[in-house]
Amino acid sequence: MAEQVKLLGHWASPFNCRIETALKLKGVQYEFIQEDLQNKSPLLLKCNPIHKKIPVLLHNGKPICESLVILEYIDETWKGTPIFPEDPHERAIGRFWANFIDEKCLPAIKKAFFTKDDKAIEEASELLKTLEAQLNDNKFFRGDNVGLVDIVANLFGYWVGVIQEAMGVELLTEEKFPRLRKCIDDTILVHKKIPVLLHNGKPICQLVVILEYIDEKYLPALWKAWWSKDNEQAKTTEEAYIVANFIGFRLGVLLEAMGSEELLTDEKFPMGEQCRKLDPTQLEIGEQCRKLESFKLPE
């Protein structure tokens, strides 16, 4: 009987991102099952009746819940690139810092963003300083190779950079945390877990930068071409249309999940209102784009 591996998740979830990164590190083939978080499937409710949350890993029909638990299961079940160290003490240290990120850093960062309180920002900064200190002079938390703590910390790279700029709160910046920021960016580039826009061969990796870039350079011409009778002109901008729609929708999902959808404002992205009027059927393209490693826009 062939091995069956399924992942119940949502393509915009940073916790889902952890599991996909681990499975790809191990070279495990899996089926991704997209969940509607507003209308959770009977399968999800059956597999995770306690928390009713994603992600859930199904291995030969047996469910495993909670991202940190799933990561450990993946490392113990499949050979390949190790996620946890072999040494028991080092494994315990890795678990400690993974829990530190989820239980200490994440709540403090959310509080800092949504209250904009100076004391909350200072408390979050102190926690991030503590985390950064664990890097020492290493590229990743385990040295030269990505491991558990890097995968868990990648949650920051997935959405913190976007929200801190949208909120106007400087927290996890390159100036304040150069080593931590570089570690997160290197992990993102290694595993390509967020969209990378390529223009004339130059990568633009931050979601908020991509949005601004599209807003300034492509959307005005894009709309003119879209309604033009010149089919060839419209064709040349079709990919930009898809990318703008997909990325805007993706950011919207992330912000909605955090209760902060008002951050994607017309003041920050003036063309956003037109983008929201795009044909909603095009959002299906976003799911197809989920597996792509990068997006390319026309010059």
From TrEMBL:
This is glutathione transferase. InterPro entries: Glutathione-S-Trfase_C-like, Glutathione-S-Trfase_C_sf, Glutathione_S-Trfase, Glutathione_S-Trfase_N, GST_C, GST_C_Tau, Omega/Tau-like, Thioredoxin-like_sf. The keyword Transferase applies. CDD domains: GST_C_Tau (cd03185), GST_N_family (cd00570), GST_N_Tau (cd03058). Its EC number is 2.5.1.18. Residues 87-204 form the GST C-terminal domain. GO terms for biological process: glutathione metabolic process. One of its GO terms (cellular component) is cytoplasm. PANTHER family: GLUTATHIONE S-TRANSFERASE U8 (PTHR11260:SF676), GLUTATHIONE S-TRANSFERASE, GST, SUPERFAMILY, GST DOMAIN CONTAINING (PTHR11260). It catalyses: RX + glutathione = an S-substituted glutathione + a halide anion + H(+). Keywords: Transferase. Pfam families: GST_C, GST_N. Coiled coil: none annotated. Residues 3-82, 108-222 form the GST N-terminal domain. Belongs to the GST superfamily. SUPFAM superfamilies: GST C-terminal domain-like, Thioredoxin-like. One of its GO terms (molecular function) is glutathione transferase activity.
